[in-house]
């Protein structure tokens, strides 16, 4: 635990150019050591060669200024709020409430009603001796055809 | 319908009047809330559609497409945040306005009752898409891509305008709800053949059909991520939706008129899948994969059986989510390496393991792994084409094998193996990217639990 904090402290100090520790300190419970850096005060030398695998100078590394970046914005406060908005409204509201809504949709496209109605009609027709289904959709006596023209 | 149109229109003043730091937060928040309200459309009846007014209606075909459209806007906003961070404020707001305008036109296209209104909105969606591709694309080829995109679609759809006006004059109305009951069988004659072609070519170009698909790899590759997402997920489905609506008027000549297009699609899906195996450009591979999947949808719509319509609708929604997710994954690679070449950024599983998990899931749904809705769609289409003609099963089976081949090829090339020495500066995955992938994947997985809502009007 202390080692983690120590590493964080050293990282922060390294990016900001401040000395993290002025004296050497060793933990008695773990093997963590905090020591003043031998490079303190010295500026790193400029790279002499540019390699293709070096990051492009225009590329902004969002993790450099803000190691906890969520990838939305440079400003850490806006970044965190954007992350919260996406997760709350995207997952907690739309996905959760939306899937609950879809799961409890009443009888989508009346499928369950159709099954109950079919069973009811079959029971009625079997009880009354009527055929279960007629091949005519509409009653043929009610259809009025135009007169035959020769 | 106004409960969707007015909030979407109001997203525009929201972007222009928000504080500088809040534009993305405000627009993402409110577009997510609009997508929540879109679920209300799922209150569908079994024998009728939801008729909101004389101008707008939504039935079981347009509802899943509308929900997908409204779900995609917040995802597009999240995906674009990084590459637009360097632009000045007015350009950012203009980009978001183009996305909102596109969303508005798409909502009105999918719910239009009057077919001329549908046509006007169908054409209107071209304008913001063209602006997004040509202004915010990354390479010089984007101008050529925009030209191909615009003129292919326009050339295909001008005959549709003539055909629609002719139908208005003969039938008396172009209101879709009335046309369903007034439609007369179309006898076979030369003029009706051209009428059939005029009605269908616009949607064939949009789908795209194999011979008319040249605009798609260009447009998808050159578009910025939001453009690629909306093109792959929604604009292709406009073609499928239009075809399903217009075939109502075109019976019985569709029985034989559809043969050349069924042949082209069956052959085309194998051809484009095979081309995918030879691609070096990652976005180009995903674009050709879209052509292949949409060829399945074309075949399904043209054979006009209940199961094929169910398969077509399911496949449209499944492909929308999967393809959009693949483009987001490709973009996450592109933002790090600034190249779309697949082998340039390989072995990513060791460097970005969580993103590798998303790559795996996206590739698995792309190759239609059970029980995803991709499989349900493809299976219904394969079954109905087998019943239509037994020989098609050879082609369909071959296509499924090649689809699996190129999906796994894409997965293995980008994720597996030893990473190259020159990508050691890759940044870890952002929370934004992981959230984006899960917002694509979770609806897909949830739909496999309850696919009845995407199976369309013949369910």
TrEMBL record, chain A:
Main location: mitochondrion
Basic and acidic residues bias spans: 62-73
Coiled-coil spans in chain: none
Localization, UniProt: Mitochondrion inner membrane
InterPro entries membership: NADH_UbQ_OxRdtase_ESSS_su
Region named Disordered: 36-73
One cellular component (GO) term of this entry: mitochondrial inner membrane
Transmembrane regions: 85-106
Protein topology in the membrane: Single-pass membrane protein
Keywords: Electron transport, Membrane, Mitochondrion, Mitochondrion inner membrane, Respiratory chain, Transit peptide, Transmembrane, Transmembrane helix, Transport
Role: Accessory subunit of the mitochondrial membrane respiratory chain NADH dehydrogenase (Complex I), that is believed not to be involved in catalysis. Complex I functions in the transfer of electrons from NADH to the respiratory chain. The immediate electron acceptor for the enzyme is believed to be ubiquinone.
Binding partners and assembly: Complex I is composed of 45 different subunits. Interacts with BCAP31.
Family: Belongs to the complex I NDUFB11 subunit family.
Name listed for the protein in its UniProt record: NADH dehydrogenase [ubiquinone] 1 beta subcomplex subunit 11, mitochondrial
UniProtKB/TrEMBL annotation, chain B:
Domain NADH:quinone oxidoreductase/Mrp antiporter transmembrane span(s) in chain numbering: 112-402
Name of the encoding gene: ND4
InterPro entries to which the protein is assigned, alphabetical: NADH4_N, NADH_Q_OxRdtase_chainM/4, NADH_UbQ_OxRdtase, ND/Mrp_TM
Membrane-traversing stretches: 21-42, 54-73, 94-110, 116-133, 145-167, 194-216, 223-244, 256-277, 284-303, 309-330, 351-369, 389-412
Residue ranges of every copy of the NADH:ubiquinone oxidoreductase chain 4 N-terminal domain listed in the record: 1-109
Main localization of the protein described in the UniProt heading: mitochondrion
EC top class named in words: translocase
Domain of life of the native organism: Eukaryota
Entry similarity comment: Belongs to the complex I subunit 4 family.
Enzyme Commission number(s) from the entry: 7.1.1.2
Membrane topology label: Multi-pass membrane protein
Subcellular locations according to the entry: Mitochondrion membrane
Keywords of the record: Electron transport, Membrane, Mitochondrion, NAD, Respiratory chain, Translocase, Transmembrane, Transmembrane helix, Transport, Ubiquinone
GO biological process: ATP synthesis coupled electron transport; electron transport coupled proton transport
Subunit structure as annotated in this protein's UniProt entry: Core subunit of respiratory chain NADH dehydrogenase (Complex I) which is composed of 45 different subunits.
Role: Core subunit of the mitochondrial membrane respiratory chain NADH dehydrogenase (Complex I) which catalyzes electron transfer from NADH through the respiratory chain, using ubiquinone as an electron acceptor. Essential for the catalytic activity and assembly of complex I.
Record-level Gene Ontology MF annotations: NADH dehydrogenase (ubiquinone) activity; NADH dehydrogenase activity; ubiquinone binding
Record protein name field: NADH-ubiquinone oxidoreductase chain 4
Catalytic activity: a ubiquinone + NADH + 5 H(+)(in) = a ubiquinol + NAD(+) + 4 H(+)(out)
NCBIfam families: NDH_I_M
Source organism: Ovis aries (Sheep)
